[in-house]
Amino acid sequence: MKQRTIQNKIRLYSISIMAVVLLLTAVMTALYSRSSNRKRVFSELEQIAYQKNLEFQANLNSQIILALQMAKSPVVIDYFLDPEDENLAEQAKKEIAAYQESFLGRTSFWISSKDLKFYSDLRYSYTLNPDNPDDYWYNMTMKETEVYNFNINYNKELGKTLLWLNVIVRDVKDNPIGIVGTGIPLSGFINDMYRNLPDGIQMYLYNNSLEVTGARDQSVIAEKAPVMKFLPSLKAEEALTDKLVHLSRQGEFVINPIKVIGWNLVLYVPERVGDYFSFEIFIVGIILDAVSLCIIFIFTVILYKLMGQTVKHLDTTKLKANDQVELMDQVNATINENVDYLEQFGQLIDHQINQIATSVDNTTELMNDLEAMNVLRKDSIESTNDLAESSQIGTSHIAHITSKIEEMNECTNRLTSANNLIASITSKTNLLAMNASIEASHAGEQGKGFAVVAKEIRALAEKSRAQQQDVSRAIADINSMVKDMVQYSETAKESFDQIVANTERVQNNFQNMSNKLESEASLVQTISANLQNVSSSNQKINLNFAEMKQSNKMVSNEISKAVVSSDELLVITDELLTTIRGEETSQKL
């Protein structure tokens, strides 16, 4: 079964990431372009709003200053106090005519609260009726205004729609005595505001009732239409504000209050599809795309190099794993040989135990002979020949004991050789464990299984070393005992030789011989006890070697498992290499 290679996956992922980066860059470029355009439009609208506000207030302030000066003129005040005085009327008309020439609309009006006669452009127009709804502005100005106010209305008598500036005239006691003012023609005033307005920007003036008070189309003002009629996306609660407001809703709004007259100036630029695209930002987006693609390309190249290095490391790991498998096979074979050696050594120990048991029996027999010699001691006086014969028998037994002791000494030498063999096995096992640990550390993560086996082998080696030391001490004890037995046997042999040589003096030295026999009996008992101790030590050695045999079998089993795990690891390594290289996995190690 062919598998999709990691290289192909990386190519696919790289292409996908590139496509996503291009898409995200396009979206982000469009969004940033829109945001940047909004900021630019808002800044432009804000600047225009301040400029138009200043233009409006500058023109308006000049008219307000003139109207206030006219209202504070002593001639006008005297005339309003006595409008029937023709002399005062003539002087006042001249004064007002001079101000009229300075007004933008070249128009003026006044009305005195004494006669309620309304004059416009220096001529009498009509007598005002405060109760007439069309003349609401009079009561509003006289009763609710401190200095001046504005109103827009269509004057039927004058046939004009004007922005009226109404200024209160007060006497020396600050009592309102009439109104003077001027009418600012909206057409010229608004045209001045629209003269330098950029194309694509809509501008409206409206009052607190949301009625349009300024527009390109002058007929809109006469209709008193609400500003929402022309700007549907603008909400009523947002339209009234006492500070500059920026809104984004189907376009960009900037609302700037004209506080001096209680109006608001709104500028609006509708949203366009082109706002999402900016050549400069588009160039930046292309640069970002190029940089991103370069980064992705470099990352892909680096990833390919890293994968090549990974493949090399996997190949190296595979070779080391094969070496480890071979090493573990050698260790397993060595341990199996150790098990065979231990079985042979166990048989040798059993043979030694049997020989020691025979020696114990011989020692028991020797004790019986000594007892017989004690009986013969009683008869020795009667028969010297019997004493000589008994002496010969004793010599023979001593020679036999010496032979047995030499055999036992040979056995202990073989035990020493076997113990040295165990020490050599333990050293080799420890060396193999150290080599396995080193190879496992070189293998990294793949060598953790070998490290566990190496740890178990090292533990077994330490246990074998401890048991070998116990055996060494036991063998040393046996050697010491054998040396004592040899010494004691030589002493007995010398004694019996003296008995044979000095048979004639037996009677004279009988008492001395009796004492020596008692000493020999004690010595034989000591030899018997020592032989029993040697037998017990050999039994312990046999048990220890049985445990070592079992431990070696366990280690052999663990090594076999480790070999199986190593084989599985090699199979996984082959599969991983196949996945990376794109080859078919057709065989396992």
| CATH domain topology of the domain at 335-581 | Helix Hairpins
N-C termini distance = 18 Å
Determine the number of helices (DSSP H or I, runs of at least 4 residues).
Answer: 11
Structural class: alpha+beta
Low-pLDDT stretches: 583-589
Kindly list the characteristics that best describe this protein:
11 helices; single chain; alpha+beta; 589 residues; Helix Hairpins; five-stranded antiparallel β-sheet; six-stranded antiparallel β-sheet; 11 strands; disordered C terminus
Q: What's the gist of this structure?
A:
With 589 residues, this protein is an alpha+beta fold. It has helices spanning 6-71, 74-81, 86-102, 136-144, 186-194, 219-223, 236-239, 279-380, 384-443, 448-501, 506-581, and strands at residues 109-112, 117-120, 123-127, 148-155, 160-170, 176-185, 202-206, 212-214, 245-248, 251-258, 263-270.
